[in-house]
Amino acid sequence: MMEGWKRGLMELLAGARLREGVRVEAAALAIMMSVNGTAATWLACPGLFSPADQAESLADTVLYGLTAP
């Protein structure tokens, strides 16, 4: 499952303007780790934040950190 997720992300990112020096595989893994880390953090401490309320902001933070302006 994880390999398929990584492949799919890599396909999506292949056409993106990534920041100089960021490899497509590294970008895909960073997204996967961010999603998994978000889930693990919320499961460990559900009162810390609301994934529904923070989803857009968290996604923007990850993506804008990987893509060129």
Short description, anyone?
This protein has 69 residues and is an all-alpha fold.
What does this protein structure show overall?
- This protein is mainly α and 69 residues long.
- The protein has one domain (2-66).
- The chain is 71% helix and 0% strand.
- It has three helices and no strands.
- The protein has helices at 2-13, 24-44, 51-66.
- The longest helix is centred in the middle third of the chain and has 21 residues, at 24-44.
- The mean pLDDT is 91.
Helix share, percent: over 70%
* Rg of Cα set: 13 Å
Global outline: globular
Our estimate of the beta-strand percent is: under 5%
Strand pairing plus helix content: what structural class? mainly alpha
Number of discrete domains: 1
- Kindly, what is the distance between the CA atoms of the first and last residues, rounded to a whole number of angstroms? 31 Å
Q: What composes the largest sheet?
A: none
Task: Report the total helices.
Answer: 3
Q: What is the mean predicted local confidence, pLDDT?
A: 91
What string gives the helices and strands in order? HHH
Give the uncertain stretches in residue-range form.
none
User: How many β strands by DSSP?
Assistant: 0
Per-chain topology:
Blueprint: H1 2-13, H2 24-44, H3 51-66
Helix pairs in contact: 1-2, 2-3
Name a few traits of the molecule.
mainly alpha
